[in-house]
Amino acid sequence: MKINGTPYRTIWPTADNQAVEIIDQTKLPHIFATLRLDTMRDAERAIKDMQVRGAPLIGVTGAYGVALAMRANASDASLAEACSVLLAARPTAVNLRWGVERMRAFLAPLPESERAAAAWQEAAHIADEDVEINASIGKYGCEIIRSIHQHKNSTMNILTHCNAGWLATVDWGTALAPVYTAFDAGIPLHVWVDETRPRNQGASLTAWELGQHGVPHTVIADNTGGHLMQHGMVDMAIVGCDRVTARGDVCNKIGTYLKALAAFDNGVPFYVALPSPTIDWTLQDGVKEIPIEERAAEEVTHISGLCEDGQVRTVQVTPKSSRAANYGFDVTPARLVTALITEKGVVRQPDREKLRALFKG
Ligand code: MRU
What we know:
By secondary structure, this protein is an alpha/beta fold. The protein has helices at residues 40-48, 55-72, 76-87, 94-107, 112-152, 176-184, 201-213, 225-230, 256-266, 286-289, 298-301, 352-360; strands at residues 2-3, 6-7, 11-13, 20-23, 34-37, 156-160, 189-194, 217-220, 236-239, 243-245, 250-253, 270-273, 279-280, 302-306, 312-316, 329-332, 339-342, 345-348.
């Protein structure tokens, strides 16, 4: 996608091919800055501190993290250490495990002397695959938007939560790929953007990238979606996800479940867009089995923003003595999901059999 007219991905090899560069997402929307990752520990830190975030991008950064480790030391011990450090960086998005384990399985049989070059190429393949997958999700999702638009025949109002746009992936996005594809195809649309406290991925990232692409959008406080749905102001909701179980339960940014409940109660179709690496075939019951990340209380008690003097500052919004809890994700049961939009097609009223049939043939 483009930033001020220049095409970017969210992660790319440096010109000397010795490191990778990322967009530092902690600085957006007020400052656009890139950051060089030279070592596996740099990649670990970028994932932990959410300079990169979003399940697919975390997976690709993990893969490059392994490749950076191989540059420094391609021994079995170094491979094992890199995998274990990177896997521990964030717990919920399964794409990290997918990316790191794919690198381990690919590299382990190779002689040490070949690992560094091969790892670099494999990480680049994973990044390219992510772009192709998301483009395909965009095409399938666009047909859904088109068919709802044909019945409605006026501007489509689409609600999304968190950021599942191109910043959460290598390019295109998952939930926003259909939006960009439909917008580029001339379907009139407008996006309701949940702010997505506490990290504000909606207000900071989704709003910014939609604006860069010229897509009309409005940022709303997190609790607004139900009211809009009751008043016929939402035609469909599309969200991304961080892990989907084999039976179709969806783990996504905290607050997604409440939007799915409101959509269900109001007859608003609720779609989830996902690349296949987000499916965890080892799990069934998402509520019981998916590990939910708990982050620092300061992300709830404090908030950052642009001050009138042009400086970005952080202020406290809660009483100093109040405790805060910060659960990063929640789980929406498959029964509340109208359809999963994947790179291989659309799974309506998802369940284990339909998902297996599509992906495992
Ligand atoms: O905590 P984050 O920002 O890494 O959360 C991930 C997300 O961006 C969302 O949960 C998103 O909707 C799924 S990732 C495409």
